[in-house]
Design goal:
By secondary structure, the protein is mainly alpha-helical. It has 15 helices and no strands.
């Protein structure tokens, strides 16, 4: 039986796939480059696939602090072993939309404490913690194919309540969550579009932008036709 790799070994593999050009470009996308190596996402995923699931390894990788090591941590962590305390510890370290969305989409959207975390984080004043709530909602809408509509209908009031947050990384995640809910099926499309139109008509600049942008996609003929075809099969 091949022994599990250590965090140091995996970080060495990351370093071998790093590119200074990639690292230099991160700042242009709002990603702090000072704790990053510049490793492409496919390379991180390939290393994670080779490593397999190992929760202790995930913790060690996270504690290293390097961006790509933390993304790797979210891929090798065992969802069944993720606690609320761990989620809160990790989310407190988020310092960019990239690490936020990677961890939420690789791990947080499928763990047992996700629902409680979403409802706590959406009221948190920290920008990337609040973003994590809506990023997790968006990823749940994408990944959780068998979840009932009721789960996502219950998120719409959270989206409406956060639609006045003017911070760029929050408002974009709120918009993203609304659009992803509306892309699941015709019933959720109608509910999400109703909220989008309500927000679009509001006097608040941020809420209006979220609503207008979401409505444009949710009432698009190609999306509606795709949802109709999906439900006819």
């Amino acid at each position: 039986m091949t022994p599990s790799p250590s965090a140091a070994e995996l970080i060495h593999r990351l370093e071998q796939s790093a590119s200074e050009e990639n690292r230099a470009g991160m700042a242009r996308f709002g990603i702090p480059p000072d704790r990053a190596l510049g490793v492409p996402k496919p390379a991180i995923r390939a290393i994670a696939k080779q490593a397999g699931k190992d929760h202790a390894l995930a913790i060690a990788l996270w504690e290293n602090g390097i961006l790509e090591a933390r993304i790797l941590a979210s891929l090798v962590a065992e969802p069944a072993m993720v606690s609320r305390a761990m989620m809160d510890d990790w989310v407190a370290d988020f310092d960019s939309w990239d690490i936020c969305d990677q961890v939420c989409g690789n791990l947080f959207d499928r763990v047992a404490p996700a629902e409680e975390a979403i409802r706590n984080w959406c009221n948190d004043e920290r920008e990337f913690v609040r973003r994590a709530a809506f990023s997790t909602i968006a990823w749940r809408a994408v990944h959780n194919k068998n979840a009932p509509d009721a789960l996502f209908l219950a998120y719409l009031p959270l989206i409406e309540a956060a639609s006045t947050d003017e911070r760029n990384f929050v408002k974009k995640a709120v918009n993203w969550a609304l659009r992803q809910i509306g892309k699941r099926n015709l019933a959720l499309n109608a509910a999400a579009l109703e909220l989008a139109c309500k927000l679009a008509a509001s006097s608040g600049k941020t809420a209006s932008w979220i609503g207008r942008d979401a409505a444009k996609e949710l009432q698009g003929s190609k999306l509606i036709e795709r949802l109709r075809q999906r439900e006819s099969h």
